[in-house]
Structure formats: C-alpha cells, structure tokens
Amino acid sequence: MTAKLSPADLTGYRAFIDRVDQFCHTISSDYASEIACKAGCSRCCLHISLFPIEAAVVAAALAELHGETLQLLADRIDRSGDDPCPLLVDDHCAIYQSRPLICRTHGLPLLIESDGVKRVTFCEDNFQGTATLPGSAVINLETLNSTLTALNCRFAAENLPGADPSARVTIAEIIKSVIASEDKI
Ligand code: SF4
Fold this sequence. Notes:
alpha+beta; three-stranded mixed sheet; two-stranded antiparallel sheet; 5 helices; 38% helix; binds iron/sulfur cluster
C-alpha cells in the first residue's frame, strides 16, 4: 500500500534528508581526491525495498514523470533480487532528487553492525589511498535507520491507519502501483 502525500507529511523527513545530504556533501568534499563516485556510475543501485514513508516519496516523484518514462520503467520491473534498481535509466536515477535515504550514502563510508561486530564499509573504488578514516567521515547506519524508522512510524500512523509500518515495498511494486493508480500508460 502506498500513501498519498501532503507536503506537511514530510516536513520532518525533508529536514532529515537535508542533514544527511549536507553530511554526505561534507565527506565528499573533504575527500574529493579519494572518491571515485561520479554521474553514470550505478554499481550501488541494487533493487531495494522501502518503508511506507519513502515509498510515498518515490511514488510522488514517479507520478511527475512522463508516461514514456514510466513505460520504460515498467519494462524493467520483472527484475528482482540483486538485479539493478528498476529506476535506473541509462545508468542515471529517474527520480534522483527524490531518491531514498540509503541512495544518498552510496559509496561513502558506512558504519554497520552485524552479529555484534562493527565495521566500516564503502565502495572499493573509494579511499584507495587512505589507511584510516576519522569518525567524522563515517556515516552511522544505525543512527540513520533509527531516525528513519521513527519518522516512518509517525507517517504510517497518520496516513496508513491499521497498516504495518514496518511492511516494506519494493521499487518495482511502487512503479506498478503508480501505473495502476494514475493510469499513466
Ligand atoms: S532509487 Fe535511484 S539512486 Fe536509488 S538505487 Fe534506484 S536508481 Fe539508484
């Protein structure tokens, strides 16, 4: 299920995204010579699923696209698993300005915890000449996810009463729902 949005629904989310974008921009600027990420590289763009709040943001962005572009996206949605994200068009994101939170961190150092073990991960093409990174250059994924979860729970309570706020929606499902609801193609 994908909720319809009013701008007020997203005030907190937008402020959060702005802060994340600023942090990512600072890392990218401070380590510009160590970061190989560039427009046209889409290796991080795997097919993901999203919380209802981000599914609604993506759906709203898709609804703004031309029918031809939606048709193009519809042709890709039989992909699944780790296949490329169906929103990739010629290695560029079709909804770049509205891309989900995790997409904004692509390639940058992420602190992740698995089975009680913390480690930092980033694109193998980045930081090849860097032996260590300060904490100020590392994005704490747990912190991002906690904040997103809180924003999503509030959004779901207000916009999707009775629905499971943790139920994730794949990008392909979002594309299908937009095409079905808007009769765009
Ligand atoms: S939404 Fe855009 S940035 Fe995110 S994985 Fe898909 S194509 Fe890449």
